[in-house]
# Entry
Amino acid sequence: MFAANFEYLRATSLAEAHRLLAANPGAKLLAGGHSLVPLLKLRLAAPPAVIDIGPITELRGIAGQGDSLRIGALTTHAAVAASAEVRTSAAALAEAAAGVGDPAVRNRGTIGGNIAHADPASDLPTVLVALDAAVVAVGPKGERTIPAAEFFTGIMTTALRDNEIVAAVVVPMSKRGVGSAYVKFAHPASRYAVVGAAARVAVNKGTCAEVQVAVGGLVPHARRASAVERALTGQPAEAASFQAAAARVREDLGGDVNGDVFASAEYRAAMAPVYVKRALAAAAARAGLT
Amino acid sequence: MSVAATAPAPARVFGSGIRRREDPRLLTGTALYTADFTLPGQAYAAILRSPHAHARIRTIDTARAKAAPGVVAVFTGADSDGVLKPIPCAWLIPNSNLKTAPYRPMATDTVRFVGDAVAVVVADSDHQAYDALELIDVDYAPLPAVVDPQKAAEAGAPHLHEEAPGNIAFHWTVAGGDIDAAFTSADVVVRDRIVQQRLIPTAMEPRGALAQYVPATGELTLWNTTQNPHIVRFIMSVVTGVPEDRLRVIAPEVGGGFGSKIPQIQGDFITVFCAMQLGRPVKWVETRSENYVSTTHGRDHVQEVELAATTDGRILGVRATVWAGMGGYLSTAAPGIPTILHGLMLSGPYQIPAIKEDVYGVYTTTTPVEAYRGAGRPEATYMLERLVDLLADEIKADPVEVRRRNLIPPFENGHAVATGLTYDSGDYQGALDTALAQIGYDNLRTEQAAARAKGRYIGIGVSMYVEICGLGPSQVAGAVGFQGGLWESAIVRFHPSGKVHVFVGISPHGQGEETTFAQVVADELGVAVTDVKVVHGDTENTPMGWGTYGSRATAVGGAALAIATRKIKEKARLLTSHLLEAAVEDIDYADGKFFVRGSPDKAKTIQDIALMANVAWNLPQGMEAGLEASSFYDPPNFTYPFGTHIAVVEVDPETGHVELKRYVAVDDCGRQINPTIVEGQVHGGVVQGIGQALWEQAVYDQNGQLLTGSLIDYAIPRADLLPDIDVRSTVTPSPHHPLGVKGIGEAGTIASTAAVYNAVIDALEPFTVRSIQMPLTPERVWRAITAGKGA
# Structure
């Protein structure tokens, strides 16, 4: 398809990007282009201007920041998936990034673009919510940090203000005895999550000491599964407890499960406990390995 | 005088899996497709398509679009009606009360599918054309839609064409043997209702056209994404009135077709119309979204089927009623697919005394349906292979054993079946045994039982098939209403240096005949493969041919080539005898050399002969100069490839996911010119058939909106979801083909859908699952398991 006409602008610094955003109301930011460009080509989006932030090198790369990893917004999924730091201390995120789309998408698509787009079936939001990650948003007058659980607010909507740019994602690193995992039911065509489940489990002497779980794909935006977390905390790290706790995810889903021609809401709701159970088991197994 | 000749390859090149000569240009991105050509002064067309499945057009206002920047012209059906004739259907099956309805290149008063062409914008750039498209105002009065072919045939269904009462495009019947007696005397009858879901071919290259019309000469040149440029010339001439001698059709590189590039579709005619109206080259290239509604779809059958048998598993008869969706109009070859290519194939590899099938072709408010890889035969194979498995289940016998009891014994030259066809040659038992041995069938059954005891659900699915290829004898084509011939032609031309041009009427678009045809010439005459160039796809420099589809390019075109090559050989023998002053009976040929029997040093190479024939200094009395031959080959019969495929799957009982664990394909396509290319064809074919079993479905809602209108929703197979495909073969030459070949383009697709489906049903045997609608999505499998657990 052919996009409607738009002005193409290029920013080489965050300051310049903010100037261009202010001067071009309704403009869209372009990072890897793998969410925005399809919308443009299908004419589902027709912004007057597109501001390419690709040249802003300060938004690229992965670095340690205290007990966390700071991942620049322009870091590609492929880079996240290949990062030794991410694989070691946030395995679920590496796992999710490795499963986004296909190699071409992963080589171009970025973590910042992905979360700003906030597709409800996207993988990364689920993991970020589970891991208690935070989003660094930079506005003209400085930056603020938004917890991932508050960042995603609905289908393709976020807490980001019109004049803010996602600069980075900050992900707490897993310590010894803590493991994380992301398990998804991928749509056979799009590879988006029909159901996605992310878990981080701290295992202490065979008991699940701390449990963080989130689900995505089947709900309007990724959300914590607190009923599951409560049910598993303090329980033995074994299959029976994972299964029992995972069954509680139905309480977390509420009444707004998505369905479509490929997978009905009823089916997705039935699959949520299965995928949560698998994510818990995989995370706990990794906790034992660290 | 001598010319350096390239030494012939030492090993026999026929049967050698040499690399495809097509691949370097394809893999390096230098191949040129229709969309890659640009002519001076070229304008771009964008087509406005109906957003309604069925509606009256009240008014179309093009004023705003005409005033938009860069717009050259805007045309509607009112402009083209009368200038262009309706698009003809070219397979008018007889004795079927066939009702064709006018299929206009642009709709005038009624639209009948989402995607039906309504108007066209021609602009200086493609962007401008698409911008202006949004400025055309059409006032539609929506009419009720009907998308299911069985429902469309019911009384009171929304009605599409006044020419076709009850939406019935045709009612065709095949009957052989005493079907009533078969069912009356049967111990066992098994039944099923099968939905062969609608599929979208999804060739990597969408369709497109570039038309150049020169008013001064009245000549039209059309670059077109087609499998059959000569048919395009014929049909385009009929629709536009441009005489065939002024009409040149070029199929440059064509990026796959799978049947969807057989027919001429609305966009082709619209592009030509614009170019002729404007006297300016016009290009139209589909977007993928447009491709999904405007290029033809495949399958779309509802089948009520039953099989009569004895308690010991002998098949007595097969009876079926099929409602085949045709879409809003009859596409070029559409009526022949669920009838001739389907109903006549209902004996498969089995001895079935009585067969009867009623096929209703039904108009529905959907994209027109055409051939899709396999075209009719996958639907027949699936039907039989399901019924045989249901019979095995009913009489508690192993499905392989039930097949064995009914197989046609090996034959080398002719076996008649109840539908009236005479198969050429077959050894079905041989293919079955090879596949069973390769997969380790008996062990697998043991493993399956052990896995079930542990709560793991492994399934084994067998699919046997016979298909009809090499379409076909032209006399038969005429008798079954095909509005053309089905012969093929080839010209082989030796240049003075011994290099060879081959010109063929077939039109390869991925199958590799530039390589295999060169191998045939090289093998017959001892030239190097690299010395043979195969030219195809341009009506101006290739002899007439009916195109590449129905696995016919090698089966028919290859035969024409072999015969033309052998004519060259005969002429070379004559010229050798003259030059060596020996009797022609004493001239032998081996490894590229013609020599006097017993004196191999007294020899002429084919290159020597090519030079002497071309300079013509010393020819025998009456011999014409040059070394060139042509052949028009009309096959005496179809060819009938066959095989056995076996799939092993594991079903996740918690989610319904199907994992393909192993796949063995044993195909017999007769003699193989290039086993690597055969393997590639089997790979691609198998994968497309697996796609139908597990992933692919074109879904319309009740309003006729295509819900799976992009690759985000329509799931084509992906490499990471597939196992290694273990490709094996047996070789049973076709007795009537000059090279003994049969055709391999569609075999994989024909066999694999049923193999995978049967495997999944087999895996779910503990849950007493009998039937699940394809594709076998996790949800459908999970629901079947859930229902089975409750039972």
